């Protein structure tokens, strides 16, 4: 794999020469803009708006536009005086548990390859230290003209680095959640739990880009002079008028897609224990109910039955 950056990992007084390699690749289909009348490529030219003429790359520089539209020229000499100690160094600044990293901060992924035989020993030392500590390394580095934040972790026998957004670049989810006073009933939650159990787990390696595959078939057909294949239109997702009916239908459809025999959805729903607002308050423990009913038995149950008695609260659960 071709490296895109050469530098070193700074680990205290230890320096590890490394090469930065892209860990991902795009398989998306890209298009060119063309003139629809004759198929000619559409080209963009760099034109100076003041002189109304095309300029060469040697004549193009950088400029910052401020709030009133004034352009402030910035030269390479101006940028060369910036204090960037991480210009050719991935400087480790801390080691933290992996769950301290907000997934919203995750950006591009890279592999760090040891550069030369002398780098092998310190590279393996850092890798094994990360493994044994069950932590990730937080680092600062410079790439493509700006200083960045990164996270180093072990992937197989290699060290990978994920670019991280700076904390102030992650927007809070203000105004995203519904601002209505919505109440979800226990039975609706139980059906949602049943649907989640029915859908089960998935091997991510089995997932593929169906749109890209269909698009490639269209391109291949057009290239050979054939009519593009017709694909069935997706089922229209209507407005959900009855949430319970939609959940029950989803559970049945998921079971049928997995080849499971149809069954009564209500009989399959298991009430899962969950904390209620009353239980979270500091109040004396409620007495056990002597009339608690035992959940209905399941012929294909994957989990053991719950105890026949349950703690109750002062408020009755809605059906």
TrEMBL record:
GO BP annotation list: DNA recombination; double-strand break repair via nonhomologous end joining
Domain Ku intervals: 52-181
Biased composition (Basic and acidic residues): 253-271
DNA damage in keyword set: yes
InterPro entries, per the entry: DNA_bd_Ku70/Ku80, Prok_Ku, SPOC-like_C_dom_sf
Alphabetical list of SUPFAM superfamilies matching this protein: SPOC domain-like (SSF100939)
Annotated keywords: DNA damage, DNA recombination, DNA repair, DNA-binding
Pfam families attached to this UniProt entry: Ku
The keyword DNA-binding belongs to this UniProt entry's keyword annotation: yes
Biased composition (Low complexity): 275-299
Comp. bias regions, Basic residues: 300-319
Start and end residues of each stretch annotated as Disordered: 251-319
Cited function: With LigD forms a non-homologous end joining (NHEJ) DNA repair enzyme, which repairs dsDNA breaks with reduced fidelity. Binds linear dsDNA with 5'- and 3'- overhangs but not closed circular dsDNA nor ssDNA. Recruits and stimulates the ligase activity of LigD.
Assembly with partners or alone: Homodimer. Interacts with LigD.
Name listed for the protein in its UniProt record: Non-homologous end joining protein Ku
Origin species: Streptomyces monashensis
Taxonomic lineage: Bacteria, Bacillati, Actinomycetota, Actinomycetes, Kitasatosporales
